[in-house]
Amino acid sequence: MSTSVGRTVEAVQLLLKIRRTGVPTSTPEALDLLAKLARRLGVGETGARRMQYAAALHDAGMARVEDEIVLGDTALDMDERDEVERHVEQGVDLMAPLLPDDATIDIMRHHHERFDGTGYPTGLKGQEIPLGARLLAVIDAWFSLTRQRPFRAGMSPVAALAEITSHTGSQFDPQVVREFKAVLVTDNLLGSDPQKTGPHAN
Description:
Elements: H1 3-21, H2 28-40, H3 45-57, H4 67-70, H5 78-85, H6 87-95, H7 102-109, H8 131-146, H9 157-165, H10 174-186
Helix pairs in contact: 2-3, 2-8, 2-10, 3-7, 3-8, 7-8, 8-9
């Protein structure tokens, strides 16, 4: 078996594995929310499709991280944190045969960067971070916070948005958060009290 065919087979096997375990940002609800946010920020259809593709595959590398680390409810030690942070490059490398272009790869690679430059894997800051990655960071956080986990209940939509807005300007792009809130309000996803969204809501 050639190297390229072997890598493609491995990528497909990994894709089947993450499909079985579930990826919150690959659901129709998540992909629709991402497309609406992309449109509000002036991203074209091609760009929106790239973001949706990246959203479905961006955490593929986590399938290689030990379950005890992924599902644990205690603070990670340095080695465990290094393993988690390596999942980004591992995922890009493993899924490369299935990725359509470099722009999609960049979205996947940089979705854990932080707006203030303290993220990983390369410490990009502000507008240096690809727009798709900045959008995916917010969507990823939203579904991570609202999703039921074995060790904790999911947050309410209002509480989750409050948590995200509290990290505006540090972890998240303020413009992306502002437009994300507008999408949630328009789609009535915050319930009856959308104003209670944290100190940076305005």
